[in-house]
Amino acid sequence: MKPTGRRLAKAAFVILALIVGKELGSALPDTSDALRPFEVAGSVGQQVKLRTATVQVEEVQLAPILLTPGAGYRTPGLWVMATVALTPAQDNTSLAVTAVRSADGGRTWEGRTRESLNCQRTPPGVTAVCDLTFEVPPDALPGARLVLATATDQRQDTVAVIDLGLSSEQVDRALETEEPLEADEPRVGGASG
Amino acid sequence: MHDGDPTNGAGRDDAGRAASVAAPGAAPGAAPEATLSARAKALPKVVPGVATTRARTWVTAKPLRVPLVVAGVGLVLSAPFGGWRAAESEDAVAASTAGDVVEAAPFEVTLERAYYSPRPSESFPELDDGQQYVVVLGTLTSRHDTTVESSLATEALGIIGLPEPLDVLGNPVEPEARVPAELFSAQDSTQLRRIGPDLTYDVGLVYRTSAESLPAELTMEVSGYTWRTEGITRDPDWDNPVVVAEVVVPLAPQDKGAGS
C-alpha cells in the first residue's frame, strides 16, 4: 500500500473507532441506570412494604375545589386527595417524596405547596395518617399512580408505586361535582382530626 | 580571497533553508551566474513518488505558515457546518402583542393587562402609605415533565419601566437590579410555589411600587431557558435564560366593579 493510502487507512480506523465507541456508550446502561430505585407496586387498600416503612393508601378522592385548614384552592385541573397511612420501621422516618405519575410514566405532579407534604414523624411501629393533595390534568388521571418515598435520595432505595384505580368515568363525575374536598390535619394512629 | 565552496560550508539552517551562499571574502563584482547556480543547488529537491510535495514544502518553509494554514483550512471546512452563518443580532427580540401566547421553555405564557391598587383584595397585606401594588394578569403553563418551582417563572418574566419599584419588604430596588415578583393564582388568590405540567393557570404577577404616578403601559420581558447538564454536579436543569419576547401590556387603575 502506498504511504498516502496507509495514512488514509489509519485515519479511517480512528474515525471508525470513535463512532463505535460513541454508539456503545449510548447503547449500554450508564451509572444512573444502575442506581435507579426499586419500585414496589401496590394498589389502594394494600399495604406496601418499603425498606424504612410500610405505606397504605386508604382512600382516593377527586374534586375541583380543595379546602384545607389554612386556605381554599381552585385548580385548572382536578384535585386528587390520597389518604395515606405510614408506619415507620425505623426512627426519624416520614414521607419525603410524593407525586402522582401518569399512566405512561412521562409526567409527574407534586404538591402545589410544601404543606402538601405535611405528614407527622412517629416512632417505629406507630402509624401516621395524612391527606396528600395534588392537582393533575383530568386526562392524565385514568391509570395514574401515586409515588411515595421516605428519602429524597432514592438511588437504590425502595419506592412505592400505587395504582390509584381511577377510571375515565370517575374523572368525568368528579369534574361535575360541586362538593369540595376537605383535607384534615395530619393525625396519629389512624384517628381523624 | 575566497575559498572554492560557494556556500562557504554554511549548509542549511533548521528550516531547511539554504544558508547564505554569499561567499565570504568574495570579491565584490563576483560573477552572478555562480551565485545563482549555487542558490539553485541549495534548493530542496522534489523527488517524484516521495511524500514531500511542493505545498508541504512551502507550508513548512517558515514557522508561522503552519498555524496560519491550519486556521485557514479550519475556516473553510466550517462553512458546511454553519461557521460562515451571520451572527444573530442581540437586538433581535420579538415583540409580542398582549394576549398572544409566548413560548419560552419550559413555559407558555400570555400577558394580558395590568392594574394598580393600594390593596386589590383582603388577601393582599396592607402596604405603607404611598405604596401600591401593580398586578400583571395572564396565563402560565409549564410543559416540563415534572413539577417546577415558581421561581423559575418569576425569574423568566421581567418588568421594564416600573417607576420606584420595591421589594417584598418594602425597600427600594436598585436601578439595575431585577424587580422581584410574587406569583399568585388568580383563581383563588393563593401563592403559586410550584407549577405542575400541562396545567394552565390564570396568574397574577404582583409587584410593589412607591410611585404616585404610573405609566399607561408596562413592558414585560419573557425569557426562555435551556435544559442542560450542570457542569459540576452533572444534574440536568433549566438554565441560561435568554429573552425571547417583549410584551407591552396596558396599565390602568383596578376596576373594583369588575374585580381584579
Structural class of chain A: alpha+beta
Radius of gyration of chain B: 36 Å
Order of helices and strands of chain B: HHHEEEEEHEEEEEEE
- In one word, what is the shape of chain B? elongated
Distance between the termini of chain A: 88 Å
Total strand segments of chain A = 11
Helix content of chain A: 10-25%
Instruction: Describe the main β-sheet of chain B briefly.
Output: 10 strands, mixed
The most extensive interface between chains reads: A-B, 24 and 19 residues
Strand proportion of chain B: 25-35%
- Proportion in β-strands of chain A: 35-45%
List how many beta strands of chain B DSSP finds. 12
The oligomeric state of the chains shown is: heterodimer
Segments of chain B where pLDDT lies below 50 for 5+ residues?
A: 1-29
Q: Roughly what is the average pLDDT of chain B, rounded to an integer?
A: 80
- In helices, the fraction of residues of chain B equals 10-25%
The whole-angstrom Rg of chain A is: 24 Å
Amino-to-carboxy terminus distance of chain B = 108 Å
Helix- and strand-based class of chain B? alpha+beta
In words, what does this structure look like?
The complex is a heterodimer of chains A (193) and B (260). Chain A is α+β, with helices and mostly antiparallel strands and 193 residues long. Helices cover 20% and strands 37% of the residues of chain A. Chain A is built from three helices and eleven strands, in the order ααβββββββββαββ. Chain A has helices at 3-27, 31-34, 168-176; strands spanning 38-43, 47-49, 53-67, 72-88, 97-101, 108-109, 128-136, 145-149, 158-163, 181-182, 187-188. In chain A, the strands form two sheets. In chain A, strands 2, 3, 4, 7, 10 and 11 form a six-stranded mixed β-sheet that branches. In chain A, strands 1-9-8-5-6 form a five-stranded mixed β-sheet, with no helix packed on it. The longest helix of chain A has 25 residues, at 3-27. The model of chain A has no long low-confidence stretch (mean pLDDT 89). Chain B has 260 residues and is an alpha+beta fold. Helices cover 15% and strands 32% of the residues of chain B. Chain B has four helices and twelve strands. Chain B has helices at residues 32-42, 54-61, 65-77, 151-156; strands spanning 94-97, 102-104, 107-117, 132-142, 148-149, 157-160, 165-166, 182-185, 194-195, 200-209, 217-229, 236-253. At the A-B interface, strand 4, strand 6 and strand 7 of A face strand 10 of B.
